[in-house]
Fold this sequence. Notes:
- The chain has about 425 residues and is of the alpha/beta class.
- It has three domains: about 5-160, Glutamyl-tRNA reductase, N-terminal domain (Beta Polymerase, domain 2); about 165-295, 3-Layer(aba) Sandwich (Rossmann fold); about 335-415, no CATH class.
- It is about 60% helix and about 15% strand.
- The protein is built from 15 helices and ten strands.
- The longest helix has about 50 residues, at about 315-360.
- About 35% of the residues are buried.
Amino acid sequence: MPILCIGLNHRSTPLAAREAFAIEGVDAKNALSFLVSRPEIDEIAVLSTCNRTEWYLTAQEETEAVARLRDFLRSHTGFPDGRLNGYLYDLRDQDAATHLMRVAAGLDSMVLGEPQILGQVRAAYEQGLEVHSIGPQLAELFRDAIALGKRARTETAISRNATSIGSVAMRWVAGHAALSQSRRLVIVGAGEMGALVAKHAAEVSDADIRILNRTISRAETLAEKIGAAAHPLDSLPETLAWADAVIVAATAPGYLVTADMLPARATPLLLVDLGVPRGVDPAVTDHPAVKLFVLDDIQQVVQHNLAQRQAAIPQVETMIDQSVSDYMAWLNQRQVLPVLVGMRRRANDLAQAELDQALRKLTTDDPAVAEQMSRMVHRLVNKLLHEPTLQLKAQAAQGNAEPYAQALQKLFALEDYLN
């Protein structure tokens, strides 16, 4: 039964359109329940994130299944066929399996190796289980992809070390603040960069955080999201005395932090300046307790970390190739399972009929004799079927099972044994 992947991502589709395709929560569960109830679709799962929406499905008649899914997507998005065609990619069988493996490993992400996608793949799998929209083929595929994603992250450098300015800055701050009893962090600026830094701060640090901004309402909105405190920008001088680390993610006509703002202090102060132009006066480094990092320092680390991740790509791709090969072998062998079961059932039925006839003709009713004959007959059946079973599975693993399976069905007259 074919496996299909129909979807879009950040490479194929702009953000505004991706938002129209996104589906989650109750809406996703209702959609899966509806679609799997259609006779054209046997199994279905959806992976929907900010960067992708992908539907994985199995179907006996793929043309009809794709048409049914496209009907749903037209209704969900309001987009006509022409617009759908411009966004959607369509992958089948091994290509579909390879794609999901790459997604789970972080090779298809906007940020190479990003860790969140593996949890999102797992959530899609669990959602499909919950609404009973996935069966054995998709369940095995998602389990293999999740296992592959874990291996890639533990055995290679694909997800190691931060590769964004905000995350690198926060890792420095977290390491610095760990030296302090108070762990006090200040983020200056509530714009795009300030929001990214604040997000990372909430994820990697349990510091006491203050957010300073010219427009206090923006600081309050951001602070509420991460459980921080909002302060006006003009409170910066006294806040510097309070802080262990300060990240400046704002710009101004002049320096926001100047040397004369820094009082004498016994504890170290880390300043991270993400501004262009700079927001921190370089003269602050004359203060013995102050350490300053600027954007160029951080970008060097980002590039180094990204190079390490990129160097891991061939190793991860080798893992993916093996996982896909194993899955396709499993899938192909599964497709010949009814023939193998039918062949064994027919052989056992014939053997049992001959055994019963032979036992009726015996002059002894010794149960030990009957038991020995039964064992002999069934051992003979197992030995006769052993080699055909191995050969058919081997051909299936290579994708060549169909002509062999059809030949066995005809040679052994298995039509009545395949239900």
